[in-house]
Amino acid sequence: METEQSTSQVRVRLSTSQAGIVLPETISSLLVKTDLRRYELSGLVNTLLGNERAIPFDFLINGSFLRGSLDDYLTQHALSSETTLKVEFVRAAIPPAHLASFKHDDWVSSVDVLSPMSPAQRWSSPNERLPGHERILSASYDGLLRIWNMSSQVTVTSPSAGNGGHLSSVKAAKFVSPSQVASSGTDRTVRLWKYREASDDSPAVMSPQIELHSHKASVDSIAVHQPSSRILSASADHTVCLWSTRKSDAPAVPESSLSAHSSLGAKRRKVGPAVSTAQRGCLSILKSHTAPVSSVIFAPNDSTVAYSASWDHGLKTWDLPASTSIDTRSTSHALLSLVAIPDLNLVAAGTSARHITLVDPRASATKIVAMTLRGHTNAVVSLAIDPNNAYGLASGSHDGTCRVWDLRSTKTDKDGQVGQSMYTIGRESIGGASRTSGDGVKVFGVLWDPDIGIVSAGEDKSVQINRGQCADPVATS
User: How far is it, in rounded angstroms, from Cα 420 to Cα 382?
Assistant: First the structure.
């Protein structure tokens, strides 16, 4: 019986959609031993391709990565060895390597980038673009924004509280365009800044442009959409606000909002010279959540629709022109972060229960939770999609790590099929290690850019850059 099992074979039909590694039709179908695993299959494909330099491959069967032997797959799915398995092979992703860390004086809450493929750059007019000038924007608990070049140098810092800056910790920051930045913080405001790159005869400048007032508590998340001149903000006051980036479109600030803000910053405003900054109110206040709103995003294909996540366990869909909640998906845990996965019609939500919940927000969806991703050991507070892979995701957690996911990488546990991470990125401030509790190294923000890599921010007072990619295409001699 053992001899028979060891020599068992199954027919596989190998295919790929990636250029440069397509097998000839005459050798794409063949009999292989059922005890082959990824490593042996990778060697087989390299041999069939005639590669002098081996390329590591991953293999998908029925849309999921092969994580055991072919025999394990057949057994798990109750298939006989007479089945022909359709196996897709793809270049394996390389673990993201540490490239650089940018040190700050205090915790770093949020990061964004300006690069050739970043939203702010793609939305901009040609004369605003800065080819070859990648920039990283960081927001810190010291109340300041900083813009960095790729040589770890600060090119500009936002003004202090007495000169028109935030009155306390900054919680979120985004590039609206190459010449405009938005931020928000515990001082209850959203702020717009004019940004100008350094020139031969003048240094880089970040100057206050508009103060936006309405929220009654910390503003912990913002989303920007430059083509419509709109900003969304999520606050601990249980509301979402919609704002205009243009002074001419924005209404005056309600007296009650200004009074509350003046009281909050009275001591700070006595320091430094007086700075006059335009103050405006919000276009609409979206009320429906019953607990702090942790994250808000624009729908990827329709800027008149938004999604928000809250400590009340709810994921809400908003009709922005009507200022109305049109759908609520209730989950089992507090939701702390959001990102849309447009190609799969899903929204990923990081939870206080250490996992990531994938939700189909469409009205036609029959299930609330499409899949759960497990692996983190503390709250998941930030999410970003892989710009090069429709199934890819990065997450940042209070456990002090970022994890890289491919939604096709799954395993079966007591709860059924769950996603498992491909790689874990620790904090370089502690040698790339991880701590279950994340004490001292909690990750607060993560972003994934095709040019710069995975950029994360945290309690270790650092912005960290890691970069991974697919294995090189076939080398030719």
Answer: 17
